[in-house]
Each structure stands twice: as structure tokens, then as C-alpha cells.
Amino acid sequence: xxxxxxxxxxxxxxxxxxxxxxxxxxxxxxxxxxxxxxxxxxxxxxxxxxxxxxxxxxxxxxxxxxxxxxxxxxxxxxxxxxxxxxxxxxxxxxxxxxxxxxxxxxxxxxxxxxxxxxxxxxxxxxxxxxxxxxxxxxxxxxxxxxxxxxxxxxxxxxxxxxxxxxxxxxxxxxxxxxxxxxxxxxxxxxxxxxxxxxxxxxxxxxxxxxxxxxxxxxxxxxxxxxxxxxxxxxxxxxxxxxxxxxxxxxxxxxxxxxxxx
Amino acid sequence: xxxxxxxxxxxxxxxxxxxxxxxxxxxxxxxxxxxxxxxxxxxxxxxxxxxxxxxxxxxxxxxxxxxxxxxxxxxxxxxxxxxxxxxxxxxxxxxxxxxxxxxxxxxxxxxxxxxxxxxxxxxxxxxxxxxxxxxxxxxxxxxxxxxxxxxxxxxxxxxxxxxxxxxxxxxxxxxxxxxxxxxxxxxxxxxxxx
Lengths: 261, 194
Description:
heterodimer; A: alpha+beta; 5-stranded antiparallel sheet; 36% helix; B: 5-stranded antiparallel sheet
């Protein structure tokens, strides 16, 4: 009877804890890192891809779609991009739900859904699984990078329990503790988007297991405003990520190229 | 007979409405407030079927208040207009539709712009610089064509509004004797004496 209090999600242990929820959080701490930094004129998201392999067909991410490989960073609405950490299948289901919620808001109010409201919609769903029995909670944490006219640029984090919070810079997934303390040291108020990009790449290169960064291990996105002050989400394509890494001197050295020269 | 006007100016919207309650050929009351304050920066004037106007206006008022409580910020004027239009359009296609015409005036605190919307019971929505509902509209739209200025100060706007009210009093067969005027600007909504 040792496992009496962790076999069902909705049963409290005698110490007042919900073990299934804590296990779900544990699952996330092994997932690929996702990092977000709020700047004064935009937001930056970066994510570490865990699934890689020479035989994996990634041609879809090179052209077509809206950028990204569809593994870690998703466009939820024209004003919100999200980075996910955890069970990818659960994340896909949540992303679908979020997109539908955003479109429902657009239909009712003829405006982009406010960022916090979208985070709340997802958290209501996640919280439901901690209370209504028989089902497993979503093993997913999300970072939402969004813009709305009420509070301008915003960065939110939500976890499997259905809690959410707003951040200036934060990190989820593997090594998130290290990344967070690095961000705490280096984050400055009123940081510009350019500085935020370089901060994110720097922290990412220090927290990721691999020594060199490349588009096969990294997803990257920014949210800024266009000339008409409308939010513009950009999810980088593999070639653009490599170009960005070269610009910041973090790309892996192509040894073959050096040999030839 | 029921009449309502709306005028935009530099950073404000003025909404005016008659104050009479009519039953058959009898004037029952002359101090009815037909302009609801939906949120700190939103005004709505209603006209149409007597019972429907009150019922629909209260439904809208309470739902907009609920949105404000739930989200800590109110609906912005364009979104409120879209949602009210949707409510009217859904009602129109139900067993018992509301027959309510309305004017919606609001000030958007995130873009610092005033907005005025004209809406009828069929769910027609238009954003306009000035608007009128009821019999008064036949006399005043031409006046507003001539005198409306989007850059007008509150005093100038009120003068234009006064012209409209005077014209209605002069020409309409059964003219309302009193008008209530409310304004919404960067300081919120309040009533103005004319």
C-alpha cells in the first residue's frame, strides 16, 4: 500500500500533496530547456530540441509552414508565441486548445485575445485535471510570449498544476535553475530586443549539454511590433538560426571548411 | 418621439438622448435616463421597444461589468461594440428578438482615441464620426454634415449638439422637451448640463 496516494491525481497525501502533479513537474525538468526574455521593444524565446538524429526528416522546417520545426515553439495566435517543455503529445493537444480559444475570442470580440486571458484559458484546463478524477494531468509547462494593448509585451509561465505567473525573464526544462540564476545576474531593466537576443543565446549556450549550438538543437523566436504597431511574431527557420549564431560568434566551427582554406 | 445623437470631437464623444417614457399617446415620464454607463470609459444610448431597451441594456451592462471583474481591465470600445453587435445579431435569430437600436460612445485608454458606433436592431454596426437614431435623425444628420468637426473642443461640440436639439424641438411634431447629455473622454464618463 505504499503507493496509495500517488495512483490517482485527485487524492491528497496525508502531508497535503498531490504526487501526480509533482511527478508531472518532474517530467518537465528533464525536457529540453525553454528560455524567455522580455525586452522593452519585444520578447525573445529560445528552446533546446532534444529529438535529433541524422535520419529525422526536418525538411518541413526549412521551407513551408511558419518557421520552426513544430517541436518546441508554436504560434498560438498572431500576437502570442509559446515555447513548450514536457510531453510533446500533451503539448500538441494544449497548443490546439489554445489556438481554438484565441479564435473564439476573435469571433466574439473582433480583437486578438489578451495574453493573460489565453494563459488563464489553458490554466483552467490544466487545473481541471488536478481535481476531476480518473485522468492524468498534462505533463507540460509553457512559456507564453505575447503582446496586447492593455499591458504591451508580456511573458507568462504556466505549469501542470494550473498555476501561472508573469516574468521579465525565465526558463523551464532541464537546467532551468542554472539558466535562471544566470538570467538573474545578467538581466537589466529596459533591455533592448537586440541585447535580449544576445543574452538568450549566451545563456542558452551555457545551459545546453552540447558544446556548440546549431539549428538542429535550437529553436528561436521573437515577437516585436511592425511599422503599424501591430504584433509581429517571427519563428526562425534553421538557416536563419545558423546565421544568427554566426553573427553572435556561437556557431560551431565548420572544420571541413577550415581544412579547405 | 425617441431621439438620440452622438458626436465625436477632439478626444471625446458626446451622447445625447431624450428622456421621455411614452405609453400609447401618453407621456408617462420625462426624466428617464436612456444612456447607460457600461464601464469607466463606455456609454450606451438605447432606443426602440420600451421593455426590450431596458432588458437588453441591463444584460449588456452586467456582462461588460463581469468581463471587467474577471480580467481586471474593461473591454476596449471596438471589442465591446463587436460583442454587443454579436449579442443583437444572435438575438435577432432567436424566437423572441430584442428590437433595440443603440449608440455606443467610448474612449480607448490604450490608444487615446474616442470611438462612436451606430447600431440598429438588425445587428448593423458602423463606426461613425457622428450619429443619430429616431425621428430626430431626419432633421439633424444634415446639420451634423455641415457643422461636425472631428477636431472640435468640448464647447464647440456642445454648441453643435445644441443646434441639433433646437432643430428637433422646432420641427418635430411631438418633440421631446428635455435631453440628457453625457460625455466620455480621458477622464471617464460624466453627465453634462445643456
